[in-house]
């Protein structure tokens, strides 16, 4: 007997004959990494089927993503469906791009958008101000059109993001505080 997690059980219903019922978001029916992404939509009047409950499969738009990797001196071009993260799709096609956290919280995968648009609702590592200046995170970015981007130096983006908070002039060494901290040595 096959084990299922509660999440999988919720999304993947079974019929009385114990056969898997096809649902659009069932992890067994639709792998996360796929070059062809499909979704179900209701049938139109031009459908050949007379049943109102029938479905038509439509393709999710796919966009060309061009990444100029400054650190490695390489240009990558690949296709990404609108509903998948750019970094994950690149990795599924054996393309190596910079990353660290994979959750949109750091600046390791930061890029500057040259043309096109990236939707990034979960990008916590880039402020709204930097996003408006054309910065994006590949790990949580979805292409909204054909996109051309350039990787950035992580330290540069980090400085733009947080520098004004940490750079308040030179740090003065406090030997007395250091002696207190090291106390028992």
Automatic annotation (TrEMBL):
GO terms under cellular component: chloroplast
Location of the protein in the cell: Plastid, Chloroplast
Alphabetic keyword roster: 2Fe-2S, Electron transport, Iron, Iron-sulfur, Metal-binding, Transport
Cofactors, names only: [2Fe-2S] cluster
Main location: plastid
Region listing for Disordered, in residue ranges: 36-55
Domain annotation 2Fe-2S ferredoxin-type: ranges: 63-155
Domain of life: Eukaryota
GO MF assignments: 2 iron, 2 sulfur cluster binding; metal ion binding
UniProt-listed Pfam families: Fer2
InterPro entries: 2Fe-2S_ferredoxin-like_sf, 2Fe-2S_ferredoxin-type, Beta-grasp_dom_sf
PANTHER family hit by this protein: FERREDOXIN, FERREDOXIN C 2, CHLOROPLASTIC
Family per similarity comment: Belongs to the 2Fe2S plant-type ferredoxin family.
Name of the protein: 2Fe-2S ferredoxin-type domain-containing protein
């Amino acid at each position: 007997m096959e084990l299922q997690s509660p999440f999988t059980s919720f999304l993947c219903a079974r019929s009385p004959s114990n056969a898997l019922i096809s649902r659009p978001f069932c992890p067994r029916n639709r792998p996360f990494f796929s070059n062809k992404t499909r979704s179900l939509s209701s049938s139109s009047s031009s459908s050949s089927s007379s049943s109102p409950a029938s479905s038509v499969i439509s393709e999710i738009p796919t966009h060309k993503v061009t990444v100029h990797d400054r650190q490695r001196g390489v240009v990558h071009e690949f296709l990404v469906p609108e509903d998948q993260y750019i970094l994950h799709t690149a990795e599924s096609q054996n393309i190596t791009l910079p990353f660290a956290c994979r959750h949109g919280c750091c600046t390791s995968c930061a890029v500057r958008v040259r043309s096109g648009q990236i939707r990034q609702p979960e990008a916590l590592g880039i402020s709204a101000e930097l996003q408006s200046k054309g910065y994006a995170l590949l790990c949580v970015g979805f292409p909204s059109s054909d996109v051309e981007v350039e990787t950035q130096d992580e330290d540069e983006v980090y400085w733009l993001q947080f520098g004004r908070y940490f750079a308040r002039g030179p740090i003065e060494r406090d030997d007395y505080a250091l002696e207190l901290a090291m106390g028992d040595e």
